[in-house]
Amino acid sequence: MSQKNRIAGGQIDRAKTLKFSFDGRSYAGHPGDTLASALLANGVRLMGRSFKYHRPRGALSAGSEEPNALVELRGGARQEPNTRATTVELFDGLLAKSQNRMGSLRFDLLAINDRLSNFLTAGFYYKTFMWPAAFWEKLYEPVIRKAAGLGSLSGKDDPDVYDKGFLHCDLLIIGAGPAGLAAALTAGRAGADVILADEDFSMGGRLNSETFAVGDRSGADWAAQTVAELASLSNVRLMPRTTIIGAFDHGTYGGLERVSDHLHSPDAGKPRQILWRIYAKRALLCAGATERPIAFDNNDRPGVMLGAALRTYANRFGAAADRRVAIFTNNDDGHRTARDLHAKGVRISAVVDVRPDAPLHPDYQVLRGAQVVDTRGRLGLSFIDVRQADGTMRVVECGALGVSGGWNPNVHLTCHQRGLPVWDDAIAAFVPGENLPVGMAVAGAANGVFTTAGALRSGAAGAVAALDLGQTPDLPQTEDAPVNITPFWYVKGCARAWLDQQNDVTVKDVKLSHQEGFRSVEHLKRYTTLGMATDQGKTSNMGGLAIMAELAGKTIPQVGTTIFRPPYTPTAIGAFAGRHRGQGFHPTRLTPSHKWAQEQGAVFVEVGNWMRAQWFPQPGETHWRQSVDREVLATRKSVGVCDVTTLGKIDVQGTDAAAFLNTIYCNGFAKLAVGKVRYGLMLREDGIAMDDGTAARLAEDHFVVTTTTANALPVYRHMEFVHQCLFPDLDVQLISTTEAWAQYAVAGPNSRKLLEKIVDQDISNAAFPFMACANITVCGGLRARLFRISFSGELAYEIAVPTMYGDALIRRIMAEGAEFGVTPYGTEALGVMRIEKGHATGNEINGTTTAQNLGMGRMVSTKKDSIGAVLSRREGLNRADDLRQVGIKPVDPAEKVPAGAHLMNAQGPVDAVHDQGYVTSACYSPNLGHHIALGFLKNGGNRIGEELRLVSPLTGVETRVEIVSPHFIDPEGERLRA
Amino acid sequence: MHDLKPVTALGQSAPVAETIGTITIAENDTLALASVAARMGHEEACHAILKKLIGAVPGPGKAQLHDPQAGFWTGPDQWMVSAPRETHELLADTLTPMFGQTATITEQSGAWVCFDVTGAAMSDLCERLCAVPIRKMDAGGALRTMIHQMGCFVIRCKADDHIRILGPRASANSLHHALTTAAHSIA
Amino acid sequence: MIIDHPLLGPRDAAEFTYMGDAKLIDRPDPDADTAAQDFHDYAYLRDNPAGWHQELWFHEAGDRSWLVVTRNTLTHEISKVELARDVARSRGRNK
């Protein structure tokens, strides 16, 4: 198809042709085009259907403020909804579909909504579907979701990757229009580290869209030359295709760089986008301004566009929206559009200016004091109805109407830290207020400076001020016309005049909102959804405010604006996730025996970030319980080995190390002999148990503390707090050694015999009794640590070697243990054995339980101070009927005792009031041949032997259980000491 | 002498090196590491010994790049000292008598994975990984920071295109993956 | 946010862990007659000012210093950053 509206000039590369497809039809465009400019050049004005009424819509703007021309870009898994055709850089093979239509774009079945518009006014969701409630879920919502809503997702995984990155600079310049370029030139030449970011793929801002000269060349050429100079400076980083999406605390900015969006698909290994975190000592906002429309009836017809957007399409892209154009304006900028289009050979049907003293032009008619009151045309603009100054009506034929209602400075980023803009009467717009984000200044049109010369001056001056430079550089001469504007927001008497085209909010809706009492701007916004679409009301908010102000008899500044929040433009969730998705969601920690365990076919479970072997299936085992039962029985019968490297290890050293542990643990450590280990319980300051573990005294001034896997980090943090903030003069040095040592539990009656083959020293029961610890050597001289501690309840040791030898040691243990049938066991068997032994873990030390609850009340020393000691003694935590840890077994050995179920008395109601306690840990005990559990029971210590009901109303469980001692195996601890 | 064979942090028998674009990422498996923490009241004596050992007392954010022993600051009155493992396998045992009661020495050789990252685009790579202001960092800068949620030390070495990254050993594979994917990103 | 670490200079707040009111440094005397009440107040009662606030931040991904940061909770302005150890000592804490 020919590019029938392609006109001369522009910054497109006509030597190359790009093929693209829109709604299944092929078109051609050129490098430098956007999808919207290419469509317009091909004579396509209709680009989508509106959200609520399914009215035909075309592009309103030529930039990121676009409310209407939203398309589904690309196909397959890369299909992206709500992409603005006005910012999509054209590439060969681009595939786009219009959204929000049922049937074809030209014959939308739901255009009937437009006829029903009286029922779909502001607040219709709230009013219509209030009753009956069930209808909402089953009927209204699905229908509305199908009918309204925007584009659709592919439903597939995003095949692209996204990077994150970090940049530092002296000066971040946001926007590369005349102000931004002048600032970058000034700062760059002075040697400062500068980042110049612009959302467009071509730097220059409005200079690329205008025809006037800057110095001795065109604005676009001056921009290109300036960009070339900046590119040659090593201290300047140019970031085109990069939107600064938010201004955060203390000079931190978010920048979204679209690395590959202009390509068919990203190159292998390359990110689609990068979310940069930019640390800027100073920032200069040169984000320009956005033109605003004027509201009149049926002002949403394809072809009705912003005036300056028509200029951009013509001057920058060589595309005319139509060959016959009219202008509706309240300021001089509309006339600039008319002049430029006229010069390009576009016929100007009329310039309709609301001002009675509007400037005239010899070549086309200017209707002074006139207003466009309505439009006509099917699927696109054909005529406008103009009310002339004398009240007579006139029909003007045109295929495009450029509407120019004045310009709004892009103050958004100045408000991201709670700043409020202030009203400037001279330009009838809000400009940045005083409460700017730390380190930010504003220049150019974003600061209400609307001339090119002014923008250059203020950009350069902004850089000088930000960096404390001596002087401003020489700047070229350029356009410096004053702003002449008469505020004009909407045509009186209009009703179906669109303010927010994306959310289908009309002047009538704003009036209705006011009539119904929603008069604060924040209420107006939420009731009508004005400004709540993906464009965040960049072209519509001001019109709504102005009408609201008029209805309330207030001025616009009295009404105020709603709050601007990041991101400045819609940002893909993938960019926020970066590489942290799927396998990369968080780092994985591998134990030293990981490779070996993989070779054994271990099934792994993620614990924290660790991958731990859960069980080691043997040939013929078809159910995990078979593996776990075997591992438990083999360990209790002979010997088993388990990687326990994941337990937190903290070396506590220094002359006050013992005193420090006395403070950290509720039980005493001062008198622990060198070469001995003790179990320790840590409390929080409120008296609740925090974590448990062991502390081994390797020397007078050296302890090794272990924590649970999950609490390694919080306990270390807590210990540093106690040291640095509470007892700063203790001579204590803390260092985590969790990853420095590979540690294995070797448990079972044959564990000593096995280790005797590995350890170089005497570890007989006499030489190395229960709870002994020592620095030793293994395998003929490798330094190691040995602890005789037991989680399983068996004769057991934990042996540690430097991590790099962990792989070799597990292989050696397995080889030397073959004669004993040594069995590797995983976390499930570990769990079974500790439940059989009645040892608490995170299920029991769960942030609500005390030492008393855990049956360790007497461990809390009263002879010394320790964290949590005082509050652990308070009355509320020491009642006779407090929860107490107990063992639980089913009366019928065939029954299970599910964790999470609650204990109820044998008789009586089952409800929260009569709750007696709950099950924390449960498993099948292969040694006892039935299920067992640990739990907490009111006054549990005195209820051993009692029969209760275990209930779980959610899962329909009701089981009779007997309360027993939590020590199911070897309650006297004889095995430990064997 | 024992007969156990060590493995590298990536779980191999030999260190891995890979060149992607201009970037070379090489696992450095030759370091012995020990932490030195001054004891209360013995700070000056500890500093003197440290200075004798590595030639300086590195301040906050600094490393002393020295041969054979080097060291960098890890916290107030705390340093990590490194030396070639081939000649100093028992570095902590060697340092303990040297520092006596002036410092606590803790074996750290097994706790870290070390990658030497070199190449023209080193700074670009760094910018994709962490918030360290790499372009402003002089040789001998040493900062701890987060790389993909892993606490790592980033040490700017003598050559302009060389950084050394020490990360938690158990996460060696994740860190290596982060480095190589970033290298592919910028290649 | 950026926290100007007294030793390391400006660092991203993402490297820190937050623990709230720096009054936690003032752990009561466990031997006082009023210890039970004092510890109750210490553990449970916190001011939550809209404005200047002294709070504890831990440089977990950095040098593991606890810091006392004086921060305006309304504007996030940070006026002072100190090593908690120094603050603790200045408030009379020792062993």
TrEMBL record, chain A:
Q: What is this protein called?
A: Sarcosine oxidase subunit alpha
User: What does the similarity note say?
Assistant: Belongs to the GcvT family.
Ranges for domain SoxA A3? 496-578
Which of UniProt's keywords are assigned here? Oxidoreductase
Q: Keyword check for Oxidoreductase, yes or no.
A: yes
One Gene Ontology term of the biological-process aspect is: tetrahydrofolate metabolic process
Superkingdom of this protein's organism: Bacteria
* Domain spans labelled Aminomethyltransferase C-terminal: 884-970
| Sequence ranges assigned to domain GCVT N-terminal in this UniProt record | 594-864
GO MF annotations, alphabetized: sarcosine oxidase activity
From TrEMBL, chain B:
Q: Which domain of life is it from?
A: Bacteria
Q: Which InterPro entries match?
A: TrmE/GcvT-like
Name of this protein? Sarcosine oxidase subunit gamma
Q: Report the source organism.
A: Yoonia sediminilitoris
TrEMBL record, chain C:
- Specify the superkingdom: Bacteria
Q: Which biological process terms from the Gene Ontology are attached to this UniProt entry?
A: tetrahydrofolate metabolic process
* InterPro entries hit by this protein: SoxD, SoxD_sf
Q: Which Pfam families match?
A: SoxD
Annotated GO MF terms = sarcosine oxidase activity
Ranges in a coiled coil = none
Spell out the protein name for this chain: Sarcosine oxidase subunit delta
Q: Which organism is it from?
A: Yoonia sediminilitoris
